[in-house]
Amino acid sequence: MSNWQQLDGVWQRVMTAALDAYVNNCIPIGAAVVDEHGGVVAVGRNRFSQDRIAHAETEALRLVPASVNRKTAALYTSMEPCPMCTGAIRIMQLKNLHMAARDPAAGSTGLLQASSFMRRFECRVAGPADPVLEFVNVVLMLEHRTRTGHQRWRQEWFDYLPGAVATGEQLAAEAAFAGWLETGSSSAQIYDSIAARYAAGI
Question: Which residue in 57, 59, 80, 169 is the catalytic one?
Answer without folding.
Answer: 57
